[in-house]
Amino acid sequence: MQASTNQFSWFQVPEDIKNLLVLAAQNWENTSESEKYIQQALAETGENTDVLVAAYRYFYYKNNYSLALQTTVKLLDKIKEREKLPDDWEQLKPILVNRKEDPQIRLYLNAYAASGLVLANLGEIEQAKEISAKVKEIDEKNDFGAGILLDILTRPAEEDD
Prior knowledge:
Blueprint: H1 15-26, H2 31-45, H3 49-61, H4 65-83, H5 89-99, H6 103-121, H7 125-138, H8 146-154
């Protein structure tokens, strides 16, 4: 089955990989079939960042939060390696602040904020709060949604009347 990949011209991957992603979307209702295409795209691309983002979204919207988290961690690691980012937050934070308009750093911040969201869905509330607070320190415009997540996670429980 050949799918139209023209609508994904911005994806920097070969046509056969675009085709796998289109097939995953076309088979959305059949989770085992669509996941097979996502996994094949991941396996064949050596973890290309565009494919990792697509896979994260796929797993997140399929409520497969453990695979969404694994995919996000791979994406973060890939960007960290490519951009030579330090592990230590105190060293990393000024780099992120100074370069937050750089597309790769924006992708890193989006992925990091997304990992907080996924952790919250997995019940890892303290880790989710920590990540959201870190991203919020950098994100005064709330471009990455971490402030909203942090507000939700730290909101006092409403009392029943």
